[in-house]
Amino acid sequence: MEDGKLTVRAVERALDILLCFTEESDMTLTEVAAKVGLHKSTVHRLLASLEGKGFVQRDVQTDKYRLGFRIWELSAGMSSSDDPGTLLLPEMEQLRDLLGETISLYVRDGKERIRIQAVQSKQAIRRVAPIGARLPLNVGASSKVLIAFAERALQLQVLGELEWANAGDRETFERQIAEIHELGYATSVEEREPGAAAVSAPIFNRAGQLVAALAVSGPANRLTPDSMREHAPEIMEAARRMGQMMK
């Protein structure tokens, strides 16, 4: 039994190492060890195993590690019907061309939301949205959508787990998500970063389950409250079409 525990622990540590590369594209052994909080000797052994299987590769000139090609082989095994980021990309590009702003797709993961796909605006001044970014779930239009349209039990669980500066913040947020559920979309202006605004709508699959949040983001001087209200029907219609593509 003890051997089993040690084996599971080694797997968890190896996965933690791989997850480090969602934040940095390449890192030294020392940097990886600092991120996962393990001794360099332990990390070196795990990296050697991962390198042997092709999940990471080491640049001999810089002595830095990066993800290996075996990762891409795994991702290629995910069919487009299972991957919203791949399946919905053409619709996202069409919406970007229609509105001229950056389009993102978010899913909830615990107390955070993850941007799983993005199509950047072609305008000179634009909102840059890196894929894979993790963002807090208690601020922003997409966060509100992912909570507002979740099942009530999940809503209460997430709201209870999130960190709030004071009780008033949670009360305001709960009032907002109730209004958003009635309205069908959410907006935010400079909630997470200065000068940025966003409008978001839920994507439901054909079974009526919440799959993701579709977001349009850009500079607040272009995405004004009036313009977001004007574009909301187009965004909700795009989200509806996307949902019809999901099982």
In short:
This protein has 2 domains: about 1-75, Winged helix-like DNA-binding domain superfamily/Winged helix DNA-binding domain (Arc Repressor Mutant, subunit A), CATH 1.10.10.10; about 85-245, GAF domain (Beta-Lactamase, 2-Layer Sandwich), CATH 3.30.450.40. It is built from 10 helices and 9 strands.
Give a structural overview:
By secondary structure, the protein is of the alpha+beta class. The protein folds into 2 domains: 2-73, Orthogonal Bundle (Arc Repressor Mutant, subunit A); 84-244, 2-Layer Sandwich (Beta-Lactamase). The protein contains 10 helices and 9 strands. The strands form 2 sheets. A 6-stranded antiparallel beta sheet has the order 6-5-4-9-8-7, sandwiched between helices.
Topology summary:
Blueprint: H1 2-20, E1 26-28, H2 29-36, H3 40-52, E2 56-59, E3 64-67, H4 69-76, H5 84-87, H6 89-99, E4 102-109, E5 112-119, E6 134-136, H7 141-148, H8 152-161, H9 167-183, E7 186-189, E8 196-204, E9 210-219, H10 225-244
Antiparallel strand pairs: 1-3, 2-3, 4-5, 4-9, 5-6, 7-8, 8-9
Helix pairs in contact: 1-2, 1-3, 2-3, 6-10, 7-9
